[in-house]
Amino acid sequence: MTAPLARVVIVGASLAGLRTAAALRDHGFTGSLTIVGDEPHPPYDRPPLSKQVLTDETAPDPALPVPELLGAQWKLGRSAVRLEPHERVVLLDDGTGLPYDGVVLATGSGARGWPEPRPVQGIHTLRTREDALRVRAELRPGRRVVVVGAGFLGGELAAAARARSAHVTLVEASRQPLERAIGAAPGAWIAGLHRESGVDLRTATTVTAFRADGDRVRAVALSDGTEHAADTVLLALGGTPATGWLAGSGLDLGHGVRCDSRLRALDPAGAVVPGVVAAGDVARVPQPLAGGEAIALGHWTTATEHAITAARTLLDPTTSAPHTAVPSFWSDLHGARIRSVGLPTLADEVLVHEHDLPGRHLKVTYLRRGRLIGALTVNRTRSLTAYRRELHAASEAFAP
């Protein structure tokens, strides 16, 4: 170690926070470890919330396993409200001050809400396990459900609602679902999948108004002039990094906590803030595949990979390797297994190698300036192996 590290505070008791704590212990950290979480629950996995938890009332508990010898002090149901890097203290909402030698920012992201006043009953977002249980209670046979936003979360919500025999209208502002993330042609394939599965998909369309009886939503008016009866509205408008509590800390907080390649938090001038690292959705990290551009990625695998780098950096930044892992994500829609590696959203050329909607197969590669930057398949997961290998080699070659 280059400096004494006796006290580590981790703010965020979800996947990235828990995995960073475990990595610290795995790499020999024997000091005090405090984990702060604003929910009352021990860490749990979020991907099942929009899948099995919505469709199966007997789905397994999504709790994440906590290593038996972690030896952490838990502050659950408590929110961090301020970071004072110069004093090396995290302040909690009950007035407690947690001094640290190293702090991990792993607060994730929050669901983006509707920007204007709206009815208060029957409109939901999904981020926590309580959200998932509330949404599941609304998804019953014959219910009329309007999902706003056809990204990955919105698509999964629509698929879950159809699996529970609800009538689903899916509203998307772009010409195709996921168009910005994976391209127009793959997006058209996803659109076909939704429609074949019984979803009333409305693309290039926005919500213009919510109609209500009292404070309960009863219909949604759309920009195509139609109006759709709604027992339930599910908002899937993306997420925002949970950085509000860091205002005034001196960190660069544009679109997440800007970090260097070793996940050390930076100030607006690009200087390292001593003793502060970030991991998971909240961290905006340079991506070698993107020419070093710092990007925040809300992927499960990214959170786990960040955890290892963040732990090593806290223990000894002089020997910590830069983060070069290849991003990846997955989604399941109407029984189709969507898998991707790399950064498809940054491509300037999309090559569709297989487009078989009846057979439920899709295979796409993505280029940027003539170089492979990503790949996506549906029900062809094995074929991603070679692309992942090529992207990993490129990421290592372009690492700082």
Outline of the structure:
With 400 residues, the protein is of the alpha/beta class.
Total beta strands: 27
Q: What characterizes the major β-sheet?
A: 6 strands, mixed
Low-confidence stretches: none
By DSSP (H or I, 4+ residues per run), the number of helices equals 8
End-to-end gap: 22 Å
**What Rg, in angstroms, do the CA atoms define?**
22 Å
Portion in strands: 25-35%
Structural class: alpha/beta
Strands of the widest sheet, in order across it, are 3-2-1-7-20-19
Mean pLDDT: 95
Q: Percent of residues in helical segments?
A: 10-25%
Q: Overall 3D geometry?
A: globular
Write the layout of secondary structure elements.
Layout: E1 7-11, H1 15-26, E2 32-37, H2 52-55, E3 72-76, E4 80-84, E5 89-92, E6 97-99, E7 102-105, E8 109-111, E9 123-124, H3 129-138, E10 144-148, H4 152-163, E11 167-171, H5 179-182, H6 184-196, E12 200-202, E13 207-213, E14 216-222, E15 227-229, E16 232-235, E17 239-241, E18 257-258, E19 264-266, E20 272-278, E21 283-287, E22 293-296, H7 300-315, E23 328-333, E24 336-342, E25 349-356, E26 361-368, E27 371-378, H8 384-398
Parallel strand pairs: 1-2, 1-7, 2-3, 7-20, 9-16, 10-11, 10-16, 11-12, 18-21
Antiparallel strand pairs: 4-5, 5-6, 8-17, 13-14, 14-15, 19-20, 21-22, 23-24, 24-27, 25-26, 26-27
